[in-house]
Amino acid sequence: MITEFIAIHEPYADWILSGAKTVETRYMRLSPKYMNKEIGIYVPERKKIIGVVRVVATITYSNKREFDADYSRHLVGEDSPFYPKQSGKKIGHVLKGARAITPISPKGRPYGSTISKNPVPPRTVSKVACRGLEKRRKYKRGGTSVGVARARDLCNRANVSMRTVKRMSSYFARHRASRATNAKRISDPTSPASIADDLWGGTAGMNWARRFKPR
Predict the structure, then answer these.
(1) Which pLDDT band, with edges at 50, 70 and 90, does 81 fall under?
(2) Domain 5-104 maps to which CATH number in 2.170.150.40, 2.30.130.30, 3.30.390.50, 2.40.128.110?
């Protein structure tokens, strides 16, 4: 019986089960009660526990250079929303014995889960944001550093805060105020305006953000 479980997002959960990812990184060290015993791997995007693993040791990355040097074990790249910010300090949890189980629904809330307050963007929004990032790389225009950061979270389907959802609503309220003007702005899919719009999730992102507006 699984009594303890932690939240791990896609695709990292699958990488752990495949054996490709052997270190799980977090900003805080897991409680001792999670150490050296089988704990569940809960995937927020699926709302299921899909496997078990043991945390056998912890390591500290003091800066981004140390973090990058261990990429082959944690698989968190610079384009990931889980890449360390500012000082670069993170805690690595060494994993052993990962194995898949028949997916089950958890009882209670998993450690590290903030699903109710920080929703996961739907796949439709993720697809548009990923497209925006690809077009920005290809054409080298469109959007700001804030838009790129937003797109990375949306593309990776990372949990986003309600503050971020509110910012999305504000963005579309500013840039899509007029239907006629908006159609002209984004009619060319390679234009800076269209690329910027995609970075924020496009029409799918606008409709999703609106769902959270107070009524």
Answers:
(1) confident
(2) 2.30.130.30
